[in-house]
Amino acid sequence: MLLDAEADICAYVARDTIKTRRLLSEAVKDFRSGRDLARSHRLRVFWIPEGFDADDESQRNFIAELLEEQVSRDILMNVVFGNLTAEDVRFFGRTSGLAGLHLALLYVISTASEEFSSTRDLAEKLQVSQGAVRERLIRLAGCGLLKQFGGGATLAGATLKGRVFLNFCGVLRREISLGSLSAELLHLMRLLDMRYAPSALQFARDSLHLAGPALTEVPEMATGRLVSTIEVAEERWGVDLQDIPHVIHESRDWGLAGDELARKLREESRRFDP
């Protein structure tokens, strides 16, 4: 399957046994040792119970439902949503201090016509200190919403996950403002371990400058805190999350020197492979 150059995803369904896992591990290891490392990320393995009886109709129906849930979740969260997870949302929400700045920062970077080259540029844009910007850049990069090619804000850009997260925030804000949550949004919230309780919104607004497990780990509070963060970013920095004009910059080329260095390091590291 991995040799199929035209396949974007190589899906494999297998019984969850030690023998199968060992064979798969050896096959992937062999593939990686002699070919482009980037290709093996296309492999998606969906495990079914070892004792599955294909002749039993009830078991077939159960496994069909299980696989449908696993495949849809994998495609939605790991492909469409760029690996956005519930922990990413909570990590983002744990920021204390100047409320809404991390969301405004991500928005500004994702919609900028040119990549920012320094924290000073971003600080002047948002009229805050460079220290506040640096702290939040680290947090945004830590949860995978931002990529950086150097120190500070050097060549900072939003990742796919970062852009999807901003879009999700826009949908969440709009539907909660209307007082009606669609089935699609509720499904996404469930996958991100979030739940909506109107009474949590005011509590989240009052405690937005604080940080603590109860403020982010409770599913209802995770939602309330994110909505409150969006409100502050809109009011203070004019962030508009409806129809976000994302700007996607071309991937940076390492150049011949960078490619040669990567090749030498790969050859060197193979000597230490077990």
Structure overview:
By secondary structure, this protein is mainly alpha-helical. The protein contains twelve helices and four strands; from the N terminus they run βαβαααααββαααααα. It folds into two domains: 10-80, no CATH class; 86-237, Arc Repressor Mutant, subunit A. It has helices at 18-34, 57-80, 86-93, 101-111, 119-126, 130-142, 160-178, 183-191, 198-206, 213-216, 219-237, 255-269; strands at 10-15, 43-48, 146-147, 157-158. A two-stranded parallel sheet has the order 1-2. A two-stranded antiparallel ribbon has the order 3-4. The chain is globular. The two termini are 25 Å apart.
Placed side by side, the strands forming the largest sheet appear as: 1-2
What is the succession of H and E elements?
A: EHEHHHHHEEHHHHHH
What is the domain total for the residues? 2
DSSP, total strands: 4
Strand proportion, as a percent range, falls in: 5-15%
* Mean pLDDT across all amino acids: 82
CATH T-level fold name of the largest domain? Arc Repressor Mutant, subunit A
- Assign an overall shape: globular
- End-to-end separation in angstroms reads 25 Å
Largest sheet: 2 strands, parallel
Q: Outline the low-pLDDT stretches.
A: none
CATH 2nd-level architecture of the largest domain:
Orthogonal Bundle
What's the Cα radius of gyration? 22 Å
Annotation field: number of helices: 12
Helix proportion range: 55-70%
Class computed from helices, strands and strand pairing: mainly alpha
- CATH class category label of the largest domain: Mainly Alpha
